[in-house]
Amino acid sequence: MNQSQKEFYEVFTELQCFILANMQKGDINGVTATHYNIIEYIYRHNKCTGKQVAKAFSISPPAISRQLKFLIENGFIEQEQSRADRRVFHLSVTGQGRFIVDNSENFRESVAKGASKTLTKTELKSLTFLLAKVMHNVVGNDH
Amino acid sequence: MNQSQKEFYEVFTELQCFILANMQKGDINGVTATHYNIIEYIYRHNKCTGKQVAKAFSISPPAISRQLKFLIENGFIEQEQSRADRRVFHLSVTGQGRFIVDNSENFRESVAKGASKTLTKTELKSLTFLLAKVMHNVVGNDH
DNA sequence: TATATTTAGTTAACTTTGTTAATTATTAGC
DNA sequence: GCTAATAATTAACAAAGTTAACTAAATATA
Fold this sequence. Notes:
- 2 copies of one chain form a homodimer.
- By secondary structure, the first copy, chain A, is mainly alpha-helical.
- The first copy, chain A, has helices at 3-21, 33-44, 50-56, 61-73, 95-103, 107-118, 121-140, and strands spanning 77-81, 89-93.
- In chain A, strand 1 and strand 2 form a beta hairpin.
- At the A-B interface, helix 1, helix 6 and helix 7 of A face helix 1, helix 6 and helix 7 of B.
């Protein structure tokens, strides 16, 4: 790695530690960060399937199956069997699930607000642009 | 959240999913991503203590204790009891541990290289600067 | 049409890694 | 010198990941 890459590597390491430290810790409103992320995904991808969720979070079907079971039993999401393909269940959030997403200030939101407070509007836009550019390139190359 | 914050939030969400997806997956050279991160930390903080490692990764002393035990038993790191305070053990990497850090292209390194390929040098420097600014502000406010 | 293959999701058994509570050994404060 | 605090470990447990095996439904093929 050259100097610029090393400098990026340093700060990206900090970022990774920060993100990991803020995951999987105690519940807020009865859901962990992972639960929250799944609920939010389903909220934003209404009528999606378990397979899609598993893929989005890169975890195995049994793992997502257990998570969805928990979220259904606790009233955050619900599922409906597809008429077109009865193997498939379409997922959607309940009122309670929607409430959680709309009302809990999550970790990413506090980071976004922190970023907005620290940077000028131009800088924030620039950061978003550059990060998106990297993400779309790196993630795209990954499969 | 305003529009700029929302845009940042979107891409930060992708980034979080990406980082989480690349953690805790199968071994490379016999160590998981978590093991690797601990070895690298000890490499960069020679003679550090278990307590420091636990704090750096925001996990409990027993959790780090088990990880260190694994890394010692498998020859990646070693510990030496402090003379000044015999409760304390100073950690350092072995030749094998150093080899792992020096030779395995890790996830963050591939992101750094990807970023460097996608962005101009000026853009990469800008991204590093902005990310560092946000990190130091947000992490600093967190305790 | 009947049979074989593929697919979505679940269950079971297990592993890893986190947690808290209790314990040990050592240091530091009155 | 006794008491409180600290670094690390052990034990018991919980959460969440994995693979393998299974069910039910859809699709492909002979």
